[in-house]
Amino acid sequence: MPTRLSLTIDIVWPYDQELNDNTIKSIEAMAPTVTHLDLALAIKSRDHDTLCQTMCDLLFNHFIYLTCLRLYDAEVGFTDYISRDEMRPIFFDGLLRMKNLQQLTLIITSWRDSSPLSTGFTRDLCNYLTKQQSLTSLKCDVDDPELLVLLLQSDHPSIANIQDLSLDVDVLVPVKRSLDKLTYTPNYPGTPGGHLADLANVTCFTIKGISMRRLSRLLKEAIGIRELTCLNVERSGNSSDQDLIEGIDSNLMLEQLYISFLDGYEPANDVMESINTVIQDHPTIRNKDTWSITAT
């Protein structure tokens, strides 16, 4: 029986009750053996509420030994359902019953450009995070100032245990607590990046989407980061080439540096050679032969 399970549940009209029941029974049978669950939901049936309730019952009553849950809402339907006043307690109480859960991913707002989550949902999410006692890793795309302050600044013991944090949001707030790992994906291309200088408490930092000029500032100002990964770096004029070289040269705390350039925005060969030279001569950077990577 599997210990890892990836489910993509795409339910549309017309709805086949017999097929659905058989599918649910099969999932229920294997659920107690599963520790890692990736669950993608796309519910577009007319019997929407019943199906969402079925998903909640299945998740919280059968997958009782999960250590890793990744929940993706491929449409707004499921998120709208669990955002209701009467459903939020069921959803978050269900998560609290997962006493072994260490890694949680909630990607639930990607379809909500014009309809943000209710303040009630983000408030209850914050309450859940302070009540749970098992999480060590959280990936989330709920962009809310109260949530960001809690995750990046609170000294609450339950929050302090979350040392691997991945945020798909617009702008970060200053990081005022110790973090082993922080991954930041701006919501929209060209996002300024918020308080990128306030990262002294972060050991490993990954950013997905940044200009060379902003990366140069990050290298000069965010002293304290030991491992820095910059994906999809965009060249921003000739002057940014030398800025990046100077930024690398000035940071004497960095031990690991990984850079991938956005397709079509790579520096010229001579600039790449200059970057490589400063890395080869750098007194603290260790991965001298693996700094240039391909983003996945």
Key descriptive features of the protein:
alpha/beta, single chain, about 300 residues, Leucine-rich repeat, LRR (right-handed beta-alpha superhelix), 10-stranded parallel β-sheet
Morphology? elongated
Helix content: 25-40%
Structural class: alpha/beta
Whole-number mean pLDDT? 84
- For this structure, the CATH topology of the largest domain is Leucine-rich repeat, LRR (right-handed beta-alpha superhelix)
| H/E element order | EHEHEHHEHEHHEEEHEHEH
**Strand order across the largest sheet:** 1-2-3-4-5-6-7-8-9-10
What's the alpha carbon Rg, rounded to whole Å? 22 Å
Largest sheet: 10 strands, parallel
Give me the CATH architecture of the largest domain, please. Alpha-Beta Horseshoe
Termini, distance in Å? 30 Å
The total count of strands amounts to 10
Written description of the protein model:
With 296 residues, this protein is of the alpha/beta class. The protein has two domains: 164 residues, Leucine-rich repeat, LRR (right-handed beta-alpha superhelix) (Alpha-Beta Horseshoe); 127 residues, Leucine-rich repeat, LRR (right-handed beta-alpha superhelix), CATH 3.80.10.10. It contains ten helices and ten strands. Strands 1-2-3-4-5-6-7-8-9-10 form a ten-stranded parallel β-sheet. Helix 1 links the parallel strand 1 and strand 2. The longest helix is centred in the N-terminal third of the chain and has 15 residues. The relative contact order is 0.07.
Topology of helices and strands:
Blueprint: E1 4-12, H1 17-30, E2 36-44, H2 48-62, E3 68-73, H3 76-83, H4 88-96, E4 103-107, H5 119-131, E5 137-140, H6 145-153, H7 157-160, E6 164-169, E7 179-186, E8 202-211, H8 212-221, E9 227-234, H9 238-250, E10 256-261, H10 269-280
Parallel strand pairs: 1-2, 2-3, 3-4, 4-5, 5-6, 6-7, 7-8, 8-9, 9-10
Helix pairs in contact: 2-4, 4-5, 8-9, 9-10
